[in-house]
Design brief:
518 residues, alpha/beta, Udp-n-acetylmuramoylalanyl-d-glutamate--2,6- Diaminopimelate Ligase, Chain: A, domain 1, Protein-Tyrosine Phosphatase, Chain A, 3 domains, six-stranded mixed β-sheet, globular
Length: 518
């Protein structure tokens, strides 16, 4: 594709972003009106530059991409986009933009022919429950006979192809998002369901995605290390709903906002313009509600009361919070006018999600679970459900991430001390922070809940040893739950990601106990 064609995507009114471009010559003066330069690829990673690439210098939290412009040119970049006032050597065109991240998203969307404009795009954001709700929506669409792609923090699902989307929970970068959308179009999909994290929204990874439906799960205490204040965090989530107004309208498809009537964010998000609003809730009046909730060993049953009528829902997923997640997905189905039987089948078909209250069975005489809960709210939900799943003791293993929201550490300790019988504090991506200090901050909350070290909790820095300790202390009928990592496949110590799996660590500990060795 030619550079001048790509740059058209940066002009006002041509996409969902608001970036404008100033094209400059190598010496900073006005450049020719059209830059007819063939571009072979677009990247913000200088290590991925190849001859003919367009390099976009993005300013990150700790790394400034402008530092790598020379390296990109040495590797074969034929043009550069950035935010700084620069003059490049060797006749390389430089395009200055107000926001490098927004430009990257728009350029990648243009590169793939703006694929989101050829799809009905559903975005899901929130603190907890995003992956579950995204999966439920995708399942409902599939049950309705629609070709739908899905990108969550666990995996991308496009047709029969499943691929991992990253080592840690986050929305993929803009080039990957647009590539996934383009693949969906190529495979004949009509719908795309995208999980959008606060980091992904704030860093404009889903800019240039023309959303048609925006869904919120909840907004609770999380990521204040990055966003600074709860208000900033909430506004990052609200970005998804503001994008409804700026996105291209598609024939016959209104922009729909799906809101949680039980969450304090409801009024704030309801004030953001949309063509149609659908609220859901269990405790408060809403458009979509659940009546007569019955929780059993095989899941939950309730009646969904909706604008399309009342109908039965069965979900294998445990916990009241999964009723809320199901209601969010049902709201999307109702809003899109999907058949009620398809909504019922879609919800019932999702029996488990990797790292979400996932049972691990190696023949042991107690229950073992891996869950992603890494916020105070999510931990309270998980432990409350786990408590109802056992008549024995509830043993929890968890930690808190380094260089992340420090304020939640004592809160999570208090939750564990209040709801679990015994807690094992351990590592969870300590990064460059002192692990002992992190564990001490968690212990403060346990002590506030009346727990004493050695009796109600114990700190064990090595996560594998901590999991094995919990497994070995379990008696028949107990429940051991390991939280915080869920689906993630790595753990960060210092600045290095090391391979890690809670599933493998749990299975290994269970086998040793059951088999007595190996």
């Amino acid at each position: 594709m030619m550079l001048d064609v790509l740059l058209d995507a940066l002009q006002p009114g041509t996409g969902s972003g608001d970036a404008t471009a100033q094209t400059e010559s190598p010496r900073g003066g006005p450049a020719p009106a059209r830059l007819r330069i063939p571009i072979s690829s677009i990247t913000a990673d200088s290590r991925r530059v190849k001859p003919g690439s367009l390099f976009v210098a993005v300013v990150g939290g700790s790394v400034d991409g402008h530092r790598f412009i020379d390296d990109a040119i040495r590797r074969g970049a034929v043009a550069v986009v950035g935010e700084r006032d620069l003059s490049l050597s060797a006749g390389i065109p430089y395009v200055r933009v107000p926001d490098g991240r927004a430009a990257l998203a728009q350029l990648c969307a243009a590169w793939y022919g703006f694929p989101s404009r050829r799809l009905r795009v559903i975005g899901v954001t929130g603190t907890d429950g995003k992956t579950t709700t995204t999966t439920l929506i995708h399942s409902i669409l599939s049950a309705a006979g629609e070709q739908a792609g899905m990108v969550s923090t666990v995996a991308a699902v496009i047709g029969d192809r499943h691929s991992d989307t990253g080592l840690h929970t986050t929305t993929p970068d803009a080039p990957d998002v647009q590539a996934y959308l383009a693949e969906m179009v190529a495979r004949g999909c009509t719908y795309a369901v995208l999980e959008a994290t606060s980091h992904g929204l704030h860093q404009k990874r889903v800019d240039a995605c023309d959303f048609d439906v925006a869904v919120i799960t909840n907004i609770t205490h999380e990521h204040l290390d990055y966003h600074g204040t709860f208000e900033n965090y909430r506004e990052a989530k609200a970005t998804l709903f503001r994008m409804l107004s700026s996105a291209a309208h598609k024939p016959g498809l209104p922009k729909i906002a799906v809101l949680n009537a039980d969450d304090p964010s409801y009024a704030y998000l309801r004030a953001i313009p949309a063509d149609r609003y659908l609220s859901y809730g269990i405790d408060n009046q809403a458009d979509v509600t659940a009546h007569n909730i019955i929780e059993g060993e095989q899941g939950q049953h309730f009646f969904a009361v909706t604008p399309a009528g009342q109908f039965e829902i069965t979900t294998p997923l445990p916990g009241r919070y999964n009723v809320a997640n199901a209601l969010a997905a049902i709201s999307v189905g109702v809003g899109l006018g999907l058949p009620i039987p398809a909504i019922q089948r879609g919800v019932a078909a999702v029996s488990t999600i990797m790292g979400r209250m996932e049972r691990i069975d190696e023949g042991q005489d107690f229950t073992a679970i891996v869950d992603f809960a890494h916020t105070p709210n999510a931990l309270e939900r998980a432990l409350s459900v786990a408590r109802r799943m056992t008549t024995g003791r509830l043993i929890v293993v968890f930690g808190c991430a380094g260089l992340r929201d420090k304020g939640k550490r004592p809160h999570m300790g208090e939750v564990a001390g209040r709801l679990a019988d015994f807690t094992v504090i351990t590592a969870e991506d300590p990064r460059t922070e002192n692990l002992s200090q992190i564990m001490q901050e968690i212990a403060v909350g346990l002590q506030q809940a009346g727990r004493r070290e050695g009796e109600g909790y114990v700190p064990i820095a090595d996560r594998a040893v901590a999991i094995a300790f919990a497994v070995n202390m379990a008696r028949p009928g107990d429940l051991v739950i390991v939280t915080g990592k869920g689906h993630e496949q790595s753990m960060c110590f210092g600045t290095t990601e090391y391979p890690w799996s809670d599933h493998e660590a749990m299975r290994r500990a269970l086998r040793v106990r059951v088999e007595g060795g190996t």
